[in-house]
Amino acid sequence: MPTAASPRWIRTRVPEVRGVPAGAASDRASVPAGAAVDATDPLAPGPLLRIGDDRLQVEIAPVAGGRIAAIRYDDVPLLLGHGESDGTAIGWGCFPMVPWAGRIRDGRFPLEGREIGLRRTFGRHAIHGVGFLMPWRVIAHGARRIDLSLSLPEDARWPFGGSARQSILVDDEGVLEMTLSVTAGAQPMPVTLGWHPWFRKPARLDFRPYAMYPRDADGIAVRPTGAPGGGPFDDCFLNDAPVDLEIDGIALQMTSDCGHWVLYDMPPDATCVEPQTGPPDAPTLAPEVLARGQTRSAWCRLACR
Q1: From first to last of its 305 residues, what are the pLDDT tens digits of the chain?
Q2: Which end of the chain, N or C, is less surrounded by CB atoms within 10 Å?
Q3: 91 in Cβ contact with 85 (< 8 Å)
Q4: Rounded to 5 degrees, what are φ and ψ at 177?
């Protein structure tokens, strides 16, 4: 049933296999030290780096998937932190989803006539990319901005290599701006980018998508899209409007150049509003493939007042 924290809807409108074979999907031995293996593995913040001003403070955890560990506005925390969550890699802060977002069904997808296999990191599926499980390198860090980079693996987790970069900036107007990009390496590769913020449960959420992907029995988005329905939600939507939240008296507006947004509002203490460049299972459902050396980027802005 809708609650005060529920959205107010305004409706406007067997081939060659590359990667990891199924029997190797749970092998943990080849993952480097410092990286989590599965999405439900514990992942501590490690050393934190800070940016911001007198009103908006942001803490970044480079070794914990390059994620934002905390956002505070006028000393009000907006994110569910590590100590308030179950401490798993998938369950706290605001992390980048790269080089894919959401679940990839059974850790497999087609590409150029082949079937690609990935390490399964969330039950039967591979979820949210590899970036949130790996330590990122700090390129530059100033009072208001931090830049990080990540060399994508070329192994069972992700067989294509490539690289990712992100910038996190607090501007003079008190807006948090995040940019994320991925560049293909020596071979073509699919890509989906996004962010996964764990917001503290909002008192108000105004979300105005114009279409919604249905979910199948596996809980994964399928086509065709239809009109948005009722919650609770763990669903992907098409949206081109700002998203407004109110958290402990702080008004927060999200904007992004991403056309797909996942809303996950089932937890009692948090709501995730996730802008991303494609739907879950995008390499199968709506593939976007980068040529060698090609870059894909996206941005997301959070304005507080």
Answers
A1: 333 333 434 332 223 334 443 333 445 555 666 678 999 999 999 999 999 999 999 999 999 999 999 999 999 999 999 999 999 999 999 999 999 999 999 999 999 999 999 999 999 999 999 999 999 999 999 999 999 999 999 999 999 999 999 999 999 898 999 999 999 999 999 999 999 999 999 999 999 999 999 999 999 999 999 999 999 999 999 999 999 999 999 999 999 999 999 999 999 999 999 999 999 999 999 999 999 999 999 999 999 99
A2: N
A3: yes
A4: -115, 130
Any idea which residue has 């493939």 for tokens?
Answer: 289
Task: Kindly give, in sequence order, each residue whose CB lies less than 8 Å from that of residue 278, ignoring residues fewer than 6 positions away.
Answer: 101, 192, 260, 285, 286, 288
- What residues pair up with 211 in beta bridges, in sequence order? 238
Contact between residue 156 and residue 181 where contact means Cβ atoms under 8 Å apart: no
Name 162's Cβ contacts closer than 8 Å, sequence gap at least 6.
Answer: 99, 152, 182, 183, 184, 185, 189, 290
Q: Does the pTM exceed 0.85? A: yes
Residue by residue, DSSP assigns the chain as ---TTSB---------EEE--GGGTT--TTSPTTS-SSTTSB----S-EEEE-SSEEEEEETTTTTEEEEEEETTEE-B--GGGS--BTTSSSEEEEBS--SEEGGGEEEETTEEEE----BTTBEESBSGGGSPPEEEEE-SSEEEEEEEPP-BTTBTT--EEEEEEEE-TTSEEEEEEEEE--SS-EE---EEEEEEEPPSEEE---SEE--B-TTS-B-SS-B----SS-EEEEE--S-EEEEETTEEEEEEES-SEEEEE--SSSEEEEEEESS-TTHHHHS--EEPTT-EEEEEEEEEE-
The domains located in the chain, with CATH, are 17-304 (2.70.98.10)
